[in-house]
Write a structure and sequence with these properties.
alpha+beta; Beta-lactamase; 2 domains; three-stranded mixed β-sheet; about 30% helix
Length: about 375
Amino acid sequence: MDFKPLSQFIDRITSWRIPWAEVLVMHRNETVFRYRNGFADLEEKTPIEEGRIINIYSMTKIMTCTAALQLIERGAMLLNDPIAAYLPEYAEMNVKRKLPDGEVVLDKATRPITVRDLFTMTAGFSYDFGAPSIKEVVRSTDGKVPTRAFAAALAKEPLLFEPGTRWNYSLCHDVLAALVEAVDGRRFGEYIRDEITGPLGMRDTGFDLSDEQRSRLAPQYEYNDKLGKPVRKDGNGFRVGTEFESGGAGLLSTVSDYALFLNALTNQGTSPDGVRILSPATMDLMRTDQLTEPMRSDYGWDQLKGYGYGLGVRTHISKAVSGSLSPLGEFGWSGAAGCLAVIDPASQLTVMYAQHMLNNQEPYVHPRLRNIVYACLA
């Protein structure tokens, strides 16, 4: 294995517009390559180093879906259950409908939102944190917004379409986190710690940081096209309350820590140390494409051509369409500041890529990075 092209790519993108980048490649449970370059703090010219904590944003979704799949394995709920059986505020939902003259009216939903719909982004939600009910729960909880309260507030908003009929990237996994709380009884962050991060030895992954961890939090940037450079932009705009444990975008972690979790998924749900978080049968279901043909037109991001959508993850279904060197069944997801997970049981390959810049250049970076990794494996 010669990973020189991969290090050259990291050097290229960090001299281009990304402040820093790091990639960790594991093959058959061994770290076969790790490389980082760039500045954690552009103003101070501080090189990126081991142990920096970052917002992983939507890569949280992989762990949220893992947590919910554990409850399915235990018989606590089923994919086809209506979520109103556990979150009664979702018993009766309204759906927006546009009339021929352009007027928008509300109709009663004829389909219930199911547990599957939360996993697969087919519930009919939006990603609008500025919705009236969300603003109201922020006010009424004095800025705390517990996870269950967030889900209860979102239930007051009309759906964009009948559940199970279309795909829309949305707040589904934030509601899924609330569902885990309702079914299990523990706070979502506590469940994650007890059932996933703790058993796997992940000490730097969670929704809140200790003082020591905060000292390792990497500055966050956003590329400003007008200025032609990254500008500092700290904080997580998806965290609307101090007690809101966002199943969609709330986790913080490090490259080393999150790679432990991703590699357990590569190993069909069991870590090299024998810690089992999911069964092989569940892993196969997780990466089974769930999209119907009408949904595919909604799932149209360029970097996901040739990929379907499983239970909360992209999943490779057509090499002819994707142009990807990865095998069919390779899966994972990414995050708003540019991190990427590649999970590949067939090749026994795990890739954890990290950066910390919003306006993240994902359509350019991620497909290239993935192809370079697979070319280097030969």
